Amino acid sequence: MTSTIEEIRKVRQSRAFTSEPVTQEQLRQFLDVAQWTGSSQNTQPWHFIVIQDKELLEKVSRVRGEMIRWAASAPLAIALVITAKGEISGAFDEGRVTERLMIAARLLGLGAGTAWFGNTDQQAAAKELLGIPTDATARSMVVIGHPDPAAARRSSNGGRKPLSELVSYDRMG
Amino acid sequence: MDKQSMIEQMNKVRQSRIYLDKPVAKDDLDTLLEVAQWTGSARNTQPWHFVVVTDKETLGKLAALRSNIDWVANVPLAIALVFDGKDTVLESFDEGRIYERLAIGARLLGLGAGTAWFLGDAEEKKAKELLGVPQERTMHSMVALGYVDAGANQMPGRNYVGRKPLDEIVSYDKM
Hints:
The complex is a heterodimer. Chain A contains 7 helices and 5 strands; from the N terminus they run H-H-E-H-E-H-E-H-E-H-H-E. Chain A is of the alpha+beta class. The longest helix of chain A is centred in the middle third of the chain and has 21 residues. By secondary structure, chain B is of the alpha+beta class. In chain B, strands 3-4-2-1-5 form a 5-stranded mixed sheet, sandwiched between helices. Chain B is globular. The chains are: A alpha+beta, B alpha+beta.
């Protein structure tokens, strides 16, 4: 296997991060990568919520008991709001975006993990924190940062919507 | 290739539908299957099975299921993605992850990839019959792989150690 492809094969979920920040240039690269994800009939059925406010991320990490508390240690998370009409195609496209962000994290010398908000009530709590309409689908976020080495040891074609339309900072709007 | 160039390549991944009549090298296929094999999944359940289809007649029959996937008749190879059928959202999410890894991996190998869907129960049932996939499993899509015809219009409880071995999760032409 060539070393280039090996980088993709080795992408793994990260759940513990150092306090080192993700730079704005790195964030821009993540958003480019997300923006250029392919989707069914190029519908681009998503909106990305960038979470950089530590206090807000801390609150979001508490919506599901202890399950996604690990997300609070990260400097950045991107919540995925899915607007697809079909349940199957929406989840498929969400997976595509997630994988691209995780691969990009590795290539940038960072790590990422997918964190799920949980059941309907827990999703509703996350949506409220992030200003996401209650009828929208929002069930996961990609959490990004510098992996904690100690934790690692333990264990169309026709254009895209502009970033200004599909990205919010801290709150949707 | 440096890592920044790889990100640039990622941002150039596009759906390909028209391929050259040239087989995918076995080494490349094996590499891509490993890339798929190592995809992450909820609690590392790996709820998938991959059916590699190279038989022309079978590809032709799959392509005939719906006019929008007729291009599959002329692909050198397709990998059908079979799931356990236990959780639609989680499995579709994982399916998207696998597809994206394959599409990026293909591009890095100088190949192209395209996703082709079986829509509706009747179509999926027939496709599963063609590939010998048990009806209780789900099979929503397959990934076409090949050398892209550049001149063509392409728009017509956590255990993270190890993975199931390829011989358990890969079939050739029939499951």
